[in-house]
Predict the 3D structure of the following.
Amino acid sequence: MKIQLESVSFTYPGGVEALRDIDLFIKSGDAVAFIGENGAGKSTLAKQLNGLLKPSYGRVFVGDWQTSNRSVAQMAGRVGFVFQNPDEQLFARSVREEVAFGPRNLGREEYTISEDVEMALKQVGLDRAINRHPYDLPTPERKLLTIAAILAMRTPVVILDEPTMGQDAQGIARIGRIVSDLKAEGRTVITISHDIDFCAEHFPRVIVLSSGRIVADGVPSEVYYQESMLENAGVIPPQIARLSINLGLPSGALTDQEFIQIYKEHR
Amino acid sequence: MSAAFSLYQSRDSGLHRLNPLTKMTIALSGVATSLIVSGVWGNYLLFLLILVPLSAWGQITYSFLRAVFRVVWPFAISIFLIQGLFWTDGTPVIDLGPLSFKAEGLLFAVISVGRILLLVGSFTLMTMSTRPDALMIALNQRGLPHTLSYVVLSAIQIVPMFQAKANKIVEAQQSRGLETSGNLLKRVRALLPLVEPLLLGSILDIEERAIALEARGFGRRVKPTSLLILKDPVWEKILRWAIVALVLALLAVRIWLW
Ligand SMILES: Nc1ncnc2c1ncn2[C@@H]1O[C@H](COP(=O)(O)OP(=O)(O)OP(=O)(O)O)[C@@H](O)[C@H]1O
Ligand SMILES: [Mg+2]
């Protein structure tokens, strides 16, 4: 499902101008990473996409819906939003109930719900925890549970706020696989992350935010090599990009393989 | 960060510069007065003639009024509905089909809401114009043990902390399709399941905060050095005693008139 922002500005009630004149088009099935330093406006932008915040100026469309004409609960049928802190999202007495909550709100049939719940839990590797209490799970698994709770809603758009935070290598790999699955299904995936390597690996489109503005938008092999722009935006490029730049190699490598190949060619 | 955890509004005003004890005296006397005053409009008048001008002096009138009304209106509505409609043997003044608002019930509601208004207003004014740590230090300087002033401070901070957390929880659930608009009953029913994570989460927060404080040496039996120097001029001491005397006088008059 496509997403479109037309000259969107947003000011918080306290007076902070968090978004300034954002124009953005995300095509259906795109995988986009929002990066930028603390306070750049990433979360504010993401909340515009599911209607939690409505633009002070400009318009936001998700598919053919304009967010300012829809309730957040309505938007939830199109945009799934996994928040950063699991403790502010989990409330049910069992993992099963937790995951079933979203699909139920969307008015799905009970039998499809239990299928969706099992499928989502399997996808995040929590299928064996289905009867446990969410608060008995360790934090990284609680985070995975919040992801499952959104996956079960089968929304055409999925937003993940800091999905890899607090995860070990295995957890990060698992979340990477989930993102790949979502992409394969043709769903639109958006992440907000300070984990630049994770973004570089899984998101073919990167948008850099700085003080509420989009300062770069493109493919990782270009964006991550724009040293001075990234520095101004307070972002440290992925290690491989830094290494390539310091070695004077041509830009573009993001994986070990690509780096080795370019290194061999130009040595 | 601190903004999310306290109602405190930083301004450079006379009210802000008052010694925290003076503001606490004002707050406590406001609470006492709200209970003593018996007239129908007395508490409203005190709110308008004392608290609102004080908030203007503190340059926080708008946020002060907003915060007070946010807390008071749910009480006000429920008191008006319950007392107004279900007052037994009252004189009907407004007919609503099978039910009717009774004059006595409405009068009682007006008085009760006045009390709540003054009570909430007094505390909100203090909280908004006093840095939480300043109040804690002022209390310690008067010999209140550290742990106790920590309890006082936590109690004051817990409301805004709760609010911030409740907000996030509701946002997260709305994003999963929870419909929170509609009639009051529907909303209450929708929000009920969210109480548990709110309490659980807040307890975790408080516990974490306590551990963090302990790890930084809180609770050791030495007199801590304070970075904040609080002024307490003679006129403020006199003012405090004057306020206390006034409240006592009011109480005396009230008892005498009874
Ligand atoms: N509820 C709020 N009320 C007022 N200002 C806010 C609120 N939330 C965020 N802001 C401000 O808006 C700006 C953008 O914040 P936002 O949370 O979108 O940044 P972010 O890029 O997500 O940062 P982070 O990486 O720290 O999550 C910041 O200046 C922030 O202080
Ligand atoms: Mg954020």
In short: The CA atoms of residues 161 and 184 of chain B lie 24 Å apart. The interface with chain A takes residues 165, 168-169, 171-181, 193-194, 196-197, 200-201, 204 of chain B (CB under 8 Å). Residues 14-130+232-257 of chain B form one domain. The two ends of chain B are 50 Å apart (CA to CA).
